[in-house]
From TrEMBL, chain A:
Segments traversing the membrane: 12-36, 75-97, 109-132, 139-157, 196-219, 240-262
Residue intervals of the ABC transmembrane type-1 domain: 72-263
Domain of life: Bacteria
Alphabetic keyword roster: Cell membrane, Membrane, Sugar transport, Transmembrane, Transmembrane helix, Transport
Signal peptide coordinates: none
Keyword Hydrolase in record: no
Cell compartments where the protein resides: Cell membrane
Protein name: Sugar ABC transporter permease
Native species: Blautia celeris
Main subcellular localisation: membrane
InterPro entries reported in the protein's UniProt record: BP-dep_ABC_trans_perm, MetI-like, MetI-like_sf
Topology term for the membrane: Multi-pass membrane protein
From TrEMBL, chain B:
Protein name according to UniProt: Maltose/maltodextrin transport system permease protein
Keywords for the protein's UniProt record, in alphabetical order: Cell membrane, Membrane, Sugar transport, Transmembrane, Transmembrane helix, Transport
Domain of life from the UniProt record: Bacteria
Family named by the database record: Belongs to the binding-protein-dependent transport system permease family. MalFG subfamily.
Record organism: Blautia celeris
Topology with respect to the bilayer: Multi-pass membrane protein
Entry-linked CDD domains: TM_PBP2 (cd06261)
Function: Part of the ABC transporter complex MalEFGK involved in maltose/maltodextrin import. Probably responsible for the translocation of the substrate across the membrane.
High-level lineage: Bacteria, Bacillati, Bacillota, Clostridia, Lachnospirales
Localization annotation: Cell membrane
Residues covered by the ABC transmembrane type-1 domain: 199-423
Amino acid sequence: MGKSGKIFTSVLVWVFLIGTSLFVVYPLVYVAAAAFSPQQNIASLSIIPFGNGVTIKNFIYLFQKTDFPLWFRNTLIVAVATTVSTVFICALSAYVFSRFRFVFKKSLMMSLLILQIFPSFVGMVAIYVILLRIGGLNTLWGLVLVYLAGNIPYNTWMVKSYMDTVSKSLDEAARIDGAGHFQIFAKVILPVSRPIIVLLTITSFIAPWMDFIFPKLVLRSSNVQTIAQGLFGFVTEKKNMFATFSAGSLIIAIPFIIYFIVTQKTLITSLSGAAVKE
Amino acid sequence: MELKTDGSSEKKVRVTAILFMGLGHILYFKEYLKGSIYALIELVTLCLIPFWANKIYGLITLGSPHPELPVKQRDNSMFMMIDGILVIAVLLIVIAVYVVSVKGAMAEYKEFCRNGSLNRKKAFISGKAFPIAGLAPALILMLVFVVVPLVFSACVAFTNYASPEHIPPNNLVDWVGFTNFTDMFGGNAAWTGAFGRVAVWTLIWAVLATATCFFGGFVLAAVLNECRIRIKPVFRSIFILPYAVPAIVSMLVWKNLLNGSFGIVNRTLMEIGLINNPIPWLSDAGLCRFICVLVNLWAGFSYFMLLTMGNMTAISSDIYEAAKIDGASPLYMFRKITFPLVLFQTMPLIIMGFTHNINNFGAIYFLTSGLPEAADSAVTSAGSTDILVTWIYNLTMDLQKYNYAAVLAVVIFVVMAPFAILSFRQTKSYKEGEL
């Protein structure tokens, strides 16, 4: 390849990378601009980012005039509870599947795999009726139960596949030292499976922040709403409070963005790791 | 009770174990605790037979009309259906426990034949019961919140549970056989037309959405991997952004930016003078579908980029060295080594991405809400960008046509099951013959 050819290629690469970056950043810039804009409606938002001037009144409005802090608290409770219970139950079941032989093992594993393909809201009418019967409607724990149950099939399978790669000699060593099954699980297998547990923690923590269907189904009264419901309510067909919506979105998105950028290296290995392990 | 160690008492053990749950354990193996727990389970089940029968009878009839009673005391068909399904699930578990107890007794006897004596070292709770105790919470939760709802959905597909005439508790719901299916697949012009349209678009959407995201992510990963730009990490961080932003946020933002009359995109284009009239991004059916795929590419390529990056670095450098010695050009190596290897590695996840996109509620609902309207939208509530799952959502939440929603759920099951089996056969445990 000649010198001019090389320059041509590198110009092409730069143009491609910068063009893609612009495409990626484009909507995000307007979220930031709208969040600090004095104009509430998208129709009056300047087409030049930050062209309307900068103000923090949207954030003040968000915290003082709307239920945003309450939504945040509710979502946080749901996310933490879902994560803790999902990690514990999935890891424990995965350990059992990985290390024990028992009757019906094959059929149970097969059913996990079949169940994980369904979006859980296919059965949403039934979930509604069941929660109604056990008093879980309009409560945060009802929502946690739904999320937890929906998380089990796929994640159990995923963690199980990882645990299969952990050498069984570790178990043997611990057993010789007199450890029981639960001790082996908690003190030996769980620490060794850390990468997959971290991935599981992240995915089950993030999901509740984005989900809309189940909060809408389960949480009807205004004091138990979650972030997604609240944000969605700002930009309906009837009203357009794009600035307030953007301010709220920014508060949610920024922690995630920071987290993903900081951990991108680990993310790459754990994502592709999950691919290889399966 | 004496057993012979030569295996001749096998029949005796089996008959006793089948006769009453746990009997074998108590009589032959002196496992009194285990045996009495089994026996207790069977005893309780037998005592509750009238209760079980009543609930199952309710499931069959779905209640009888009592117009004279106040609404609250009338039979609620949906409660009866849920109860009936739950009861059947519980009974199946009892049967499963029965099978486990018999098999356990047989295994115990084989052990006895081998050792010639009873082996009593095993502690009950930490020993064989550990798998049961460990799986119980997961299984119960899945049964109540995943399996029963799915079975319920499948059952609703065979009822007339729909607004306005058949909504409990005011009215009863009845079994109607395959009526809903025939309506959907040919019987009723409006519904059949809507179904055909939505089903075809769901498939096109899932294929395009997955393919664009995979190739987009793959190209970016390859470029970032090959180029020697010093600020590579900056670009990589930018490209991760869409993955980090919650989908509900990014889709609603795009929806507002692309709004036909006051969206930023149209106003910018008009300001620059590229167009004179606003482009109907989200109100023209064809264009809107294209936008759906494009915006989904924006939101979804990061995931595949990260995935391919990980797999590219995992390819052993020996292969490249060998190819270089053979005089292969970089492009040739990319085509013959990198691409096939990465594709092979990510295949299971591409399949999963495809199933994910078939069910990708957020990408459609928050961006277009299924709009623009099609000719039959007023009746069926299916817009021209609605996919099966968003249609199910509309049917459930807006129209309350639960019966048709359930038919669609069954369709999704039939479409997805092959993929489940396919990904099952891809797994390591299947290939190594463990299962």
